[in-house]
Amino acid sequence: MKKQPRKIWHYTPALPIRQAPYFERPFSLLESLKYLFSVWQPLSQRFLLLLISIALWIWFTPDIERAVNFQWDWMLEIGLRNLIIVLTVAGGLHLYLYTFRKQGDDERFDPRPLAKNSNIFHFNNQVWDNVVWTLAGSVPIGTLFECLALWGYANGYITIISFAEHPIWFITLLLVIPVWSGFHFYWQHRLLHTRWLYKSVHFWHHKNVNTGPWSGHAMHPLEHVILYSDLLIYFLIASHPIHVIFNAMLHTIAGPTSHCGFERVKFGKNRGIVLGDFMHQLHHRFIDCNYGSYETPWDKIFGSFHDGTPEGDAYINARRREIYAKRNAPTWKTDAP
Ligand SMILES: [Zn+2]
Ligand SMILES: [Zn+2]
C-alpha cells in the first residue's frame, strides 16, 4: 500500500495558491483589476494600513520643520510611536491568538506550539527571542529610516508633493508602493539566502520554522537595515511623507501580521480579516522557495515557486536536494516531509 504523505498543515487557503495575475501570459486586464480591488478593498489589511498611515502622519509624526537637524526629541517621538505600534500589533495578536487562544486552531496553518526549552533560540525560548530582536533591532532601525526620510523632506533632499497638486501621482504611487516593496523584498531576500549571509545573518529569522506574530521581525539587525532600505527610494522620487509611512508600515505592521500563523484573525462567528501569508509560511517550512511576495513574478520565473500542494512539496524538496548536492554539502535538515 502506498504510504500517505504526512499531513503537514492543519489549515491552508484554497490550493494551489495563486500569485497576482499581473505577470501571467496572456495578460488579462480584468483579472488584474479584480486582484487589485481584492487587495485594496475596504476591509483588506492594505487599505487599513493606508488609513493607519494617514492617521500617523496627521497625529503622530513630528512637523517637517522640526526635522532639519537630527535631534533626539523628534526622533524619539517617532521611535515611541513605532514601539507602541509594535507592542500593540505583535503583542496584541500574540495575546489574542496564542495566550488566550481566542480562535483555538481555527484557520491556523501549523498547530505545533511555539518553541520552549529550545537552545536554538536566544534565551531558549522562541517568543522571548522574537520579542527581544523585534524591540532591540526592528523598532530603532525602522525608526531611523523614517527619520532619515523626514530629514530628507525638511532639507529638500526629497521632493515633497501634495495630494491637492498631484492627485494622480499621489494615488499611483500608493498603488505601486506594495509592488515596489515586494520587488525589493525579493531581491534582498534572495541575497540573504546566499551561503554566507544565510549562515551569519538570515538564519536568525529561519530558526522560526513555525511562526508567530513576534517572528515577523525576529531577525539579525543587519537584516533589519537591509529590509527597511527600500525607503531610500524616496530620495529619488517625488512623494509625500504619507507614502514613506505607508511603505514603512508594510514592514512595521505587516511583518508581525504576515507571520501570525493564522490565515484570518476572526472576530464574531465568521467575520475576520486576512492577515497571515501562507506563501511566506511555506518559505519558513521549506526554506528554498517563495522568496518573494504574491506580487512578484521572480519565484515563478526562477522555478522557486511553491504552490502549497503535495506536488509542490515534492517539487521543492527535489529542488533543494539539487541545490545542496551542487553545494556539495553532505547534510541538510528540514522537517518537511
Ligand atoms: Zn528566507
Ligand atoms: Zn519570515
Characterise this structure.
- The protein is an all-alpha fold and 337 residues long.
- The protein has one domain.
- Helices cover 53% and strands 2% of the residues.
- The protein is globular, with a radius of gyration of 20 Å.
- The model has no long low-confidence stretch (mean pLDDT 94).
- Bound molecules: zinc ion (ZN) (2 copies).
- The site of one zinc ion has 5 residues, from α6.
- One zinc ion binds next to α6.
Quick overview of this protein structure:
With 337 residues, the chain is mainly alpha-helical. The chain has helices spanning 29-40, 45-59, 72-99, 126-154, 167-192, 195-206, 221-228, 241-252, 254-258, 278-286, 298-301, 310-327; strands at 264-267, 271-274. It has one domain (21-327).
The largest sheet, given as strand count, sense and whether it forms a barrel, is: 2 strands, antiparallel
How many whole angstroms does the radius of gyration measure? Answer: 20 Å
Bound molecules: zinc ion
- Mean pLDDT figure: 94
Strand content range = under 5%
H-E order:
HHHHHHHHHEEHHH
Overall number of domains = 1
User: What is the helix content?
Assistant: 40-55%
Low-confidence stretches: none
For the secondary structure, the number of strands is: 2
First-to-last CA distance: 18 Å
Structural class: mainly alpha
Helix count equals 12
Shape: globular
Which strand order spans the largest sheet, edge to edge or round the barrel?
1-2
